[in-house]
Structure to design on (143 residues):
């Protein structure tokens, strides 16, 4: 089988209610990793001050403030300055977000199988969960 070292990686931007991710957020990530559903490759905390200034900190550098021992980041540095610049505009001034590089383990397996059969995934489009749920709720209500 054509086995890729890495599968598709998705950058997920998660707005935070506080300046730092909660223990529950970190626990949820750890659970998904332990279950083999995702592989967390990199994580950055990005804060945007009221004037629009941006500060990015590797999650693993927050060990004094957060218990990040359950998170291994095998590709630390994968999320770079270009990613921060691109996604920083989605972060409201005076708030923070976490930029996660998440390998989709199931998609790695699928891409490997396609490659083995001579196929190549050309594109993948993700529809955000709130959009899917809203569209399906509206369709159900219209019936």
């Amino acid at each position: 089988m054509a086995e890729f070292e890495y599968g598709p990686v998705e950058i997920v931007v998660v707005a935070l209610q506080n300046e730092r991710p909660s223990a529950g957020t970190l626990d949820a990530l750890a659970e998904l990793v332990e279950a083999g559903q995702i592989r967390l490759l990199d994580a950055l905390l990005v804060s945007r001050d009221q004037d629009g200034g941006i500060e990015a900190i590797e999650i693993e550098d927050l060990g004094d403030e957060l218990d990040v021992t359950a998170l291994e980041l095998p590709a630390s540095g994968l999320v770079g300055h270009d990613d921060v610049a691109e996604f920083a505009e989605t972060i409201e001034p005076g708030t923070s977000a976490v930029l996660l590089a998440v390998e989709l383990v199931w998609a790695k397996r699928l891409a490997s199988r396609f490659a083995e059969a001579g196929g190549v995934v050309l594109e993948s489009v993700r529809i955000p969960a709130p959009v899917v749920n809203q569209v399906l709720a509206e369709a159900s209500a219209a019936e």
Remarks:
- The beta strands are 9-15, 38-48, 54-58, 95-104.
- The two ends are 46 Å apart (CA to CA).
- The helical segments are 23-34, 81-88, 105-116, 129-142.
- Residues 7 and 109 are 8 Å apart (CA to CA).
